[in-house]
Automatic annotation (TrEMBL):
Gene3D superfamilies given in the database record: AhpD-like
Pfam families linked to this entry: CMD
Residue ranges of domain Carboxymuconolactone decarboxylase-like in the record: 39-120
Protein name: Carboxymuconolactone decarboxylase family protein
Lineage: Bacteria, Pseudomonadati, Pseudomonadota, Alphaproteobacteria, Hyphomicrobiales
Example GO molecular function: peroxiredoxin activity
Signal peptide stretch: none
Domain of life the protein comes from: Bacteria
């Protein structure tokens, strides 16, 4: 059980409207229902504007998110993204597994994806990119995409803090971390 009880239906009309826009007909996630218990927290969370499509492809976006969640040991959010987006992002089972268990240079990734994963790892480990890591990323991604990667990593680190710190129960349809 979550350390803060999530909202239960029926939801206030404004909150229901937000859930409908974000979830597109699916039941709202425990994460959203828990954050929405605080109007301020919910507004700040939604103001991050990273729940929309940005300059990254769906595949690039999901690789960055899944790797960030794997590195922060956030099985809750990693599992949600695997269940909801891995197939649409054309991630193979081997690649999904690699987001948790392999190094950035795993052979299942393209050179661009290896640079992306290395950047996610560097941000997790050192909260910065070396000149070489930035150059490797820049060889494959333009400035708008690089900014989006930095924002996504920070946003999903925050999501990981929320999910892990609140001990959110895993969503029924979410994937589990693979075993080594």
């Amino acid at each position: 059980m979550s350390r803060i009880a999530p909202l239960q239906p029926p939801y206030p009309p404004e909150i229901q409207g937000h859930f409908d826009r974000i979830m597109r007909g699916a039941p709202p996630l425990v994460l959203f229902r828990t954050i929405a218990t605080s109007a301020r927290a919910w507004e700040k969370f939604r103001a991050g504007s990273l729940l929309d499509r940005g300059p990254l492809t769906l595949r690039e976006r999901e690789i960055a998110i899944m790797r960030t969640c794997a590195r922060t040991a956030c099985e809750y959010e990693w599992g949600v993204h695997v269940a909801a987006f891995a197939a649409a992002a054309h991630l193979t089972d081997e690649q999904v597994r690699a987001t948790v268990l392999e190094k950035a240079d795993a052979p299942c990734w393209s050179a661009a994806e290896q640079a992306l994963i290395a950047a996610v790892d560097a941000l997790h480990d050192r909260v910065t990119l070396s000149d070489g890591e930035f150059a490797a990323l820049s060889a494959h991604y333009d400035e708008a995409k690089i900014l989006e990667v930095l924002l996504l990593c920070g946003f999903y680190r925050t999501v990981s803090y929320l999910a892990n710190g609140l001990a959110l129960p895993r969503e029924e349809t979410a994937a589990r971390f693979p075993k080594a």
